[in-house]
Amino acid sequence: MAKDYYGILGVSREADDGEIKRAYRKLARELHPDVNPDAETQARFQDVKSAYEVLTDPQKRRIVDLGGDPLETRGGGGGGAGGFSAAGFGGLGDIMDAFFGAAGATGGRGPRSRVQPGEDALIRIDLTLEECATGVARDLTVDTAVLCEKCHGGGAEPGTRTETCDTCDGRGEIQNVQRSFIGQVVTARACPVCRGTGEIIPSPCTQCSGDGRVRSRRTVTVQVPAGVGDGMRIRMASQGEVGPGGGPAGDLYIEVSEERHEYFTRDGVDLHCHVSLPMTAAALGTTLPQRTLEGDEELTIEPGTQPNTTHTLRGRGMPRLRSTGRTDGRGDLLVHLDVQVPDRLDARQTELLRELAELRGEERPDLAAHRNGLFGRRRQGGRAR
């Protein structure tokens, strides 16, 4: 039975890559070997890793959504039956296939359906930080296989139909019988005429050449939600490649490429920026306009502000995906103040600074005031001993 990879991570089947990644990180922290070294927890940790691997791979996730398990190996573990698995056989079914043909093992595989699921498609879009913050609707040009409008996926010219393959009599395979020292050996291979489908198309559709699909360039509109980030993917169900024979279309994934901003640096849902502040403004205090995603706000600088001080503007960062719009649904804006010391002074400025230093008694800094620091304590401790 296929594993419930969505259930292992605790996410819904409609979860996007961001939700899957957050769920994985949370579980990985809880189940990591450094935190929970017991065997049962480690087995669950491996299941979580496997689920994350599967659900972040579009092809493997497609198999899961169709009811399969992309990590299952055919046949099973088989060392007990004389080691046949190690010799290259997947299990008892493969051994029966090799000696007695497919019919002897399973009662016949039967013809393969011409209708096959389509592949997923992937395109990338470039978004600015502002577009990632507010969300945006984009019209995208997609070049994929679509259903043939002339034959509607059937592959035959209108007014005609498919026929049973005379070579394999509709079985989709051809069997060869050979005699050997153990008796008759039956081998089977896909019919080269019908390619395993058991039917042929005498009059293929002139538009799709019998494939049931054609290449077409079309426009799709994607709704990018607020809060997306670089590398995230948006899934559009059934907007990918139509399968052979007009099979169900795969999914279309839109991967976000976030452009670098000239002022803000993004860290998850938080934003960072640096503001250069003159030494006098840091000492005396001031107010200045601070840029945010919504416009300028007044930022108050307290007197005596020290270098490397950080002001946090709550709720002025990026929105969290699927947030309710409240302040706690957004990150913060962290403003880092870089106090600038002048490197060139004219005569009057030099005179004023010297006067200030004299008033503060700082013409000659007293290094003895720092004796209570780390090295001073070490020296004092040495004398005490």
UniProtKB/TrEMBL annotation:
Protein name, as recorded: Chaperone protein DnaJ
UniProt keyword RNA-binding present: no
Biased composition regions of type Polar residues, renumbered to the chain: 303-312
Assembly mode: Homodimer.
Subcellular location: Cytoplasm
Cofactor(s) named in the record: Zn(2+)
Family that this chain belongs to: Belongs to the DnaJ family.
The CXXCXGXG motif repeat ranges on this chain: 148-155, 165-172, 191-198, 205-212
Binding site for Zn(2+) 1: C148, C151, C205, C208
UniProt: Zn(2+) 2 binding residues: C165, C168, C191, C194
Disulfide bond in keyword set: no
Domain annotation CR-type: ranges: 135-217
Gene3D superfamilies cross-referenced by the UniProt entry: DnaJ domain, Heat shock protein DnaJ, cysteine-rich domain, Urease metallochaperone UreE, N-terminal domain
InterPro entries found in the cross-reference section: DnaJ, DnaJ_C, DnaJ_domain, HSP40/DnaJ_pept-bd, HSP_DnaJ_Cys-rich_dom, HSP_DnaJ_Cys-rich_dom_sf, J_dom_sf
Organism name: Actinomycetospora aeridis
NCBIfam families from the UniProt entry: PRK10767.1 (NF008035), PRK14278.1 (NF010871)
Chain intervals for the UniProt region annotation (Disordered): 298-330
Ranges annotated as CR-type zinc finger: 135-217
Chief place of localization: cytoplasm
Function: Participates actively in the response to hyperosmotic and heat shock by preventing the aggregation of stress-denatured proteins and by disaggregating proteins, also in an autonomous, DnaK-independent fashion. Unfolded proteins bind initially to DnaJ; upon interaction with the DnaJ-bound protein, DnaK hydrolyzes its bound ATP, resulting in the formation of a stable complex. GrpE releases ADP from DnaK; ATP binding to DnaK triggers the release of the substrate protein, thus completing the reaction cycle.
UniProt keyword terms in alphabetical order: Chaperone, Cytoplasm, DNA replication, Metal-binding, Repeat, Stress response, Zinc, Zinc-finger
Cofactor stoichiometry and binding remark: Binds 2 Zn(2+) ions per monomer.
